[in-house]
Specification:
The chain is α/β, with parallel strands linked by helices. It has helices spanning 21-24, 32-38, 51-64, 76-79, 88-103, 119-122, 132-147, 160-169, 192-195, 203-229, 250-271, 307-316, 337-353, 396-409; strands at residues 14-18, 69-73, 107-113, 153-158, 177-179, 199-201, 234-246, 277-288, 322-327, 358-364, 383-385, 392-394. The radius of gyration is 20 Å and the shape is globular. The structure holds beta-D-glucopyranose (BGC). Beta-D-glucopyranose binds next to strand 8.
């Protein structure tokens, strides 16, 4: 007799991959990042994979790979190119993007802002401005009002802590302000080569604290204003979690708890009440007192997909539905990716078995993209891009992900 096992992943679980506007669209010139690129402070982006014009055929790939969801972001600088002036033709563009997903029965997950700022905003202080939350909320409400008929899931902010710490503590990203003793607390390596050019001092620490507060306020205000125009949509923040853990040593455990509090809890405590769900981006962990050695990704990050379990656990205490909105690795040769994704999905399965309310898994990234201060050399894509010819090549691991999706969507034992 065939007994259907208790199915871990719910029937309506969302499987997919993610991208972000500046990293794939091409020619987002009206931004702080493009300006920094022209100044030689970060790599130039330019045309990239031209996803802005090729989204239809890219979504054919999404379908072919068996995904039923896709996360992408709206480029703020296109939609609001000057303060308070909205460009209707760009809004129409994003409506078409949503329709292209709907036509293929792919559920869209829209991020309203993924790191890049319009020049008019960044050049007048960006998130240091006291009126930044109001400016941000106005933009969010405008976009959601325009897109609400074709999209249910909206995230306001992508990775507030990464944005704040790279911009104001490490100084590797715009606006390149560096807190003088940041090396003591630095955990990631994105853009290390650019840090030396940053303006160093004590002031960035205070600005960082102000920016982090403003980001939380911006999300909370955006939530309220979105609900006025579109009460039915799901609004979330996308939180980058570094999973800090420890060996048996109580001092190490204390350090891990403190680091989790500083990196994850402070921002979440300020915003979770204004979240219908929470997005998790997981890439790395740090274990205090660890003696193990790990294989490394092309970013030199430990291969430790199992850390997604602890990251979900950290977020589950807010008692909101959770979506894995990003998780993945840079692996140009595609030697680790298939196994990595499989282990990651098993860890998500364990999280669900242990009662965590996880409702989606989106791999980062659908296609190779501009990896911020590291340019186009680091390849996270399920699909490889040839930047000369714009040819797309599906990597073998993408087929493995498809098989896993099929296996987990119809689990019979
Ligand atoms: C960001 C992406 C980035 C990825 C890999 C996340 O922090 O949201 O934009 O490409 O990590 O570093």
């Amino acid at each position: 007799m065939n007994i259907k096992s208790v199915q871990t992943f719910p029937d309506n679980f969302y499987w997919g991959a993610a991208t972000a506007s500046y990293q794939v669209e091409g020619w987002n010139e009206n931004t702080d990042w493009a300006k920094a690129g022209k100044q030689g402070r970060v790599p130039l982006a330019g045309r990239l994979s031209d996803h802005y014009n090729r989204y239809e055929s890219d979504f054919d790939l999404v379908k072919k790979l068996g995904h039923n969801a896709h996360r992408f972001s709206i480029e703020w600088s296109r939609v609001e190119p000057r303060a308070g002036e909205f460009d209707e033709k760009e809004i129409v563009h994003y409506k078409k993007v949503l329709k292209a997903l709907r036509k293929r029965k792919i559920e869209p997950f829209v991020t309203l802002w993924h790191f890049t700022l319009p020049l008019w905003f960044s050049e007048t202080g960006g998130f240091e401005r006291t009126d930044a939350p109001a400016i941000f909320a106005r933009y969010c409400a405008k976009v959601v009002d325009a897109l609400k008929d074709d999209c249910h899931f909206f995230s306001t902010i992508n990775e507030p802590n990464v944005f704040g710490s790279n911009g104001w503590l490490r100084g590797s990203w715009p606006p390149f302000k560096r807190f003088a003793v940041t090396d003591l607390v630095s955990v990631t390596n994105s853009g290390r080569t650019f840090e030396s050019q940053a303006k160093k001092g004590i002031m960035p620490l205070f600005l960082y604290l102000r920016v982090m507060k403003n980001l939380a306020r911006a999300h909370n205000l955006a939530y309220d204003q979105i609900k006025l125009v579109a009460p039915g949509v799901d609004v979330s923040v996308v939180k980058h979690v570094i999973y800090f853990h420890a060996n048996w040593n109580p001092w190490n455990m204390f350090k891990a708890a403190l680091a989790n509090y500083a990196w994850t809890s402070i921002f979440m405590n300020r915003t979770y009440r204004k979240c219908d769900s929470v997005g998790l981006n997981y890439y790395f962990h740090k274990k205090f007192g660890d003696t193990a050695t790990y294989e490394k990704t092309d970013m030199d990050w430990d291969i430790y997909p199992e850390g997604i379990y602890g990251s979900l656990r950290l977020l589950s205490k807010y008692k909101k539905p959770l979506f894995v909105t990003e998780a993945g690795l840079a692996d140009k040769a595609d030697v680790h990716r298939a196994n990595y994704i499989e282990r990651q999905i098993m860890a998500v399965e364990n999280a669900i078995k242990d009662g965590m309310d996880v409702r989606g898994h989106m791999y980062w990234s659908l296609i190779d993209n501009y990896e911020w201060a590291l340019g186009i050399e680091k390849c996270f894509g399920l699909v490889a891009i040839n930047y000369e010819t714009l040819e797309r090549t599906i990597r073998p691991s993408a087929w493995h992900y498809k098989k896993l999706i099929e296996r987990y969507s119809s689990k019979i034992s």
